[in-house]
């Protein structure tokens, strides 16, 4: 039996087709996955997300001012929570599907979703990802940074640097009317030059009006696959790059079932920004 895919993009009655309409309808007729109109943010919505991004950046800047060997990750959570309170923001992670804290703090072999706690004390040589999502006036912005505590090994330094390069290369690959798979292909190609593993079980995502929206932004894959990227879409790119295997597991000792660990327990790194697609490429909304 021949099933026809339901159209995701519809022209508006009585409204002439725009260049965006023509491009999206062309690719949908070619059988490609395209966004719905709901995923295209209005200028007012983009401005709201941008304002949330300013606060998100401020949170991570505040962490950068205070992070040091000897502090525990609960102290990082306190910094983030206090900053949000002072700037009329809500930490999106807090109580999200049972997550108990306001920020994710992922040390060394913890890939992501590390839970702040007083028992996790930062040591010289650690690398840590601090991942923050803020809600300001109902708009979401999401970003994370890597921090090196004191002096670490050349191997960890390289992992942190290359992962940031993966984020930048992925952003360069995101062009209007290109595809999500172009981002993943570029990231995977760069990471595998260093024999690193690109995590496949977690991905970037649409964001702005909700914590997680379409599309899923995989950090591996093939050009021309995944959803069509069009101006007005807002999404994260957040490659998780492992020093060894790309495989991961959930820490059995985590009572909340959140912390993701590398399969071989070698270090992992991640950098993340929220981007808006424009007619000329992506613009960063979190710095």
TrEMBL record:
| Cofactor: how and how many bound | Binds 2 divalent metal cations per subunit. Has a high-affinity and a low affinity metal-binding site. The true nature of the physiological cofactor is under debate. The enzyme is active with cobalt, zinc, manganese or divalent iron ions. Most likely, methionine aminopeptidases function as mononuclear Fe(2+)-metalloproteases under physiological conditions, and the catalytically relevant metal-binding site has been assigned to the histidine-containing high-affinity site.
Residues binding a divalent metal cation 2, per UniProt? 142, 205, 238, 272
List ligand-binding residues for a divalent metal cation 1.
131, 142, 272
Q: Do you know which CDD domains this protein is assigned to?
A: MetAP1
SUPFAM superfamilies of this UniProt entry? Creatinase/aminopeptidase (SSF55920)
Q: Which cofactor does it need?
A: Co(2+); Zn(2+); Mn(2+); Fe(2+)
Q: Which reactions appear under catalytic activity for this entry?
A: Release of N-terminal amino acids, preferentially methionine, from peptides and arylamides
E.C. numbers: 3.4.11.18
What molecular function terms (GO) are annotated for this protein?
A: initiator methionyl aminopeptidase activity; metal ion binding; metalloaminopeptidase activity
| Key word Metal-binding present | yes
Q: Where does substrate bind?
A: 113, 212
Question: What's this protein's function?
Answer: Removes the N-terminal methionine from nascent proteins. The N-terminal methionine is often cleaved when the second residue in the primary sequence is small and uncharged (Met-Ala-, Cys, Gly, Pro, Ser, Thr, or Val). Requires deformylation of the N(alpha)-formylated initiator methionine before it can be hydrolyzed.
**What NCBIfam families does the entry give?**
met_pdase_I (TIGR00500), PRK12318.1 (NF008970)
Q: Which family does it belong to?
A: Belongs to the peptidase M24A family. Methionine aminopeptidase type 1 subfamily.
HAMAP family from the UniProt entry: MetAP_1
Q: What is this protein called?
A: Methionine aminopeptidase
Q: Which organism is it from?
A: Hoylesella timonensis CRIS 5C-B1
- The UniProt gene name for this protein comes to map
